[in-house]
Amino acid sequence: MVSKDLARKLNLLGFPLFEAKSDEDLNKTLAEVVESRDPRLLEAFPVLLANGLKNGTFEYKTAAAYLKNRTDRDDFSSLLVMSAALYKVMGLKFSWAEEFYKSLPPGKNREYNSLLSRLKAGGNFKVGRYTMSGERLKSAFANYFNPPQSGLDGLLALKTEYGLEYALSQVFSPKQKELFLKKLKGEKLSKTEKEYFSRTVKKKVSALANAELHSLAQKAMLL
Fold first, then answer.
1. Rounded CA separation 89/135 (Å)
2. Which of 12, 104, 145, 186 has CB 3.0 to 4.6 Å from 20, enough for a Cys bridge?
3. Longest Cα pair distance anywhere in the chain, in angstroms?
4. Closest CA to 48 of 67, 73, 24, 22
5. What is the pLDDT of residues 135-173, one digit of tens each?
């Protein structure tokens, strides 16, 4: 359960759960997100950090000091590394990035590289104690990141791209999605890939292409 006070602070970081009326300390708010152990908020951690860093000051030691539980502090470090990897995968460059990367705890390069690979591959993976969805992380960032005015066009492109990626992930497994996209791009499939596409993926594609099913799905969403 998210308290009204934390929800108000999250609204200031572009994640609207409650009406916010004043500035809040970024370091303390991020620590409270970790302490909430709420899966939805943890998946929004990268976008909360990115939105907050535009107007606030992030200091790793200051934020970590708010966390009295050692396991929470470990999770906090991993969430920071995950955020850095997500920004890289999404091709985002921030003016504050260099200082932010310097603030990451030492010895986190291996974890960063591992998360980078997992985010590129898609699917679920572990971050600290939690299981994260790469698709949901990207979709949450595209939906809630508030860029400067000059970056609005790029954000609209992100919303379209990752909104579609999230929808695909609800229908196809990572391997099935990969073959579906290869087929769309006209890329050559191996014999094994062709057989798997014909046996499994094609059936789902045929169902998605059915106009009557599409109409019924839209009606069901409105009920």
1. 12
2. 12
3. 60
4. 24
5. 888 888 888 887 654 444 444 455 455 455 656 666 778
